[in-house]
Amino acid sequence: MDVKVYDVTLRDGAQGEGISFSVDDKIKIARRLDRLGISYIEGGWPGSNPKDLDFFRQMKNYQLQYARLSAFSSTRRPNVSVKHDNNIIALLAAEVPVVAIFGKSWDFHVLRALETTLEENLNMVRETVAFLKDKGLEVVFDAEHFFDGFKHNPDYALQVLAAAAGAGADCLALCDTNGGTLPWELAEIIKVVQTETRVPLGIHAHNDSGCGVANSLAALNMGIVQVQGTINNLGERCGNADLCSIIPNLELKMDKRCLPPGHLKRLTEVSHYVNEIANLPSPNNQPFVGSGAFAHKGGIHVSALLKDSATYEHINPEEVGNHRRVLVSELAGISNLLYKAKELGLDVNSYDAQTRAVIKQIKELENQGFQYEGADGSLELLLRKAFGQMGDFFQLQNLKIILEKQEDSDFVAEAFIKIQVGEQIVHTAAEGDGPVNALDNSLRKALTDIYPEISGMHLADYKVRVLDGNRGTAARVRVLIDSANEVEQWSTVGVSENIIEASWQALVDSINYLLMKTRIAGEQS
Prior knowledge:
Blueprint: E1 4-7, H1 23-36, E2 40-42, H2 50-59, E3 68-74, H3 86-93, E4 98-104, H4 107-114, H5 118-134, E5 138-144, H6 146-152, H7 154-166, E6 171-176, H8 183-196, E7 201-205, H9 212-221, E8 226-229, H10 243-253, H11 267-277, E9 295-296, H12 299-307, E10 325-326, H13 334-344, H14 353-368, H15 376-386, E11 395-404, E12 412-421, E13 424-432, H16 435-447, E14 458-466, E15 477-484, E16 489-496, H17 499-524
């Protein structure tokens, strides 16, 4: 590999606000990172909490194919023997082949945070690294606050690196711990460091100035051979440098290999997997791996895209495991509709009056508050119906919802529904935690015997947005529902002044979408 990727998602990433990985979560992520082909996986700080130590114990049951597992710790404490330091004892108990040791390289931190002397800090670095090397371990020395330290006292910052290098450190990772260094400052400092040491260098950038990725790429362009970061920019404060941007830039634009051949296509899957485990949404606009990273909305863009994708895409999305999306909205033209129709296998004539009527219909609906760019399921249903590709799988005959509340009790909701499927009339009722939940339960109950595939789908997300809040409780609302089964996830939309009506629209589209896909799959098999 030209560059070794050192992933700190399980340690630095876990320090991000709202993130709490269980041991099982960490094991799952570690195995997925290994499958991606990451060179090093830093699993945690065994001296800081029993959960991380348990993680390392359990990881002995798994064989990693590509990655070397690393454990993290500080140098020994001031005026304490290395072999008696609890952090170092716990580090050895992790029984991993690689350790990362951070030490202070900013004199301000040595004097104020550690409250020790500059010379003692050098001894702490030197003795800790030498002790671990004597145990046969690969040692990465993280020079904490290196760039801030160099700006304040370059001689001392370089002395800290020299102490680690002289003790046998295998890599010196230069850390922009506060994330405040700008790319041109970072480059000038690295030039000086490269004249002072022959030990391989790494970069560990934080994103507090929005420069985490830029700083990492600038360092790598100067010949640094190890890059540290997290999946999806997870981490304390503003996060660490995002490996989901660094890795594809290295492989596709800088011609530097950092993953096994063919593994870059797994990047989007890993990004979404980590966010799912962390219970975080995946940002649509995240570079390379976001669902909107290759989404096109403007009609002029799509017109050019139909001729050559390079007109509005900097890479082929499939190279990182993503895919192109064309959004149909009030900004759409004929080109957007043609692209979407082609994607769905619809036979559409660009000069056909029906095609233009569909575009007009979509724009009118979006003017009412519908948003099809975020509801691909509803859009596909609309297009297939407009071009005569499908009808309704059921029709509503009657719907009634009752809400009941007694003193000192919660609301109880019950939905009564009568629907028609072909010649059959189904009349049923169901309770729920609220009116929408009761409505969902009742509709499923009515249809599941006729369409068993409905039992395999579930509600993945439910969002409500008020569209014209100045109308108070009479405002229109837009309901977006994400549904999923074992095969895929889809989104549907409903709009109304009545939240129950909007929810009903989105729920009906959600079930119709599943039934449509099931029918199409059956016809193709």
